[in-house]
């Protein structure tokens, strides 16, 4: 992975100069047409639309070339959008070199960069980018930084690294942010550490629907359907209205364990599943 931003993060990386040749600019079979716009705003809007819908590396590079000729990467976060597009298409080197070219990398830029790696399950580069952000800039992490890091840990079952990030979260007082607490519950639960997931859940002052869905799901998915149903019943007593995800998971718990099915009484099923038919394929029944 060739990107200067990772040098101070302890990575031994070879510097690679990024150059888009005229040949690459002409290589796209269907290059975006970005001429004929009457003002800058409409041109920027067209470029962003082209980048976000880009489905091939040749098109992405073609857009990159045209931006270099006609616009600034800071216009409408076009540079950030190009970085995300390269990562989405799986071209990490292009993404890193594009990120190096960005003139003013702010927190939005870093978060977008980390999120792009996270969506690909690339925990190593998520951590590299996070370390570079801390070492090379004065930018402080926020929810948009932490959530993709934890999500990458969950995807790769890297509980040890996730625990380290949890420590960072505690140090900077970020655990009170509900979205962060929810992804930590999901990480600990899916890694099989249900005590950690339950402890985090119980520490949330007012859990939201996502919190309840997470704690129910991790228990059901790790073979604890009775406990999952118990949390579901608690959520109903707390006045939480279930959504499709809640009820599908609860029905799975009932399918797994007859005692769990008894816990969810006929009356409760009727009350919870009223007018519920996900995709018209499944009905709640007593």
UniProtKB/TrEMBL annotation:
Biological process per Gene Ontology, one example term: RNA modification
KW Transit peptide (keyword) present: no
Keywords tagged on the record: Repeat
Pfam families linked to this entry: PPR
InterPro entries documented for this protein: PPR_At4g14850-like_plant, PPR_rpt, TPR-like_helical_dom_sf
PPR repeat placement: 208-242
Protein name (Swiss-Prot/TrEMBL): Pentatricopeptide repeat-containing protein
Sample GO molecular function, one term: RNA binding
Organism: Linum tenue
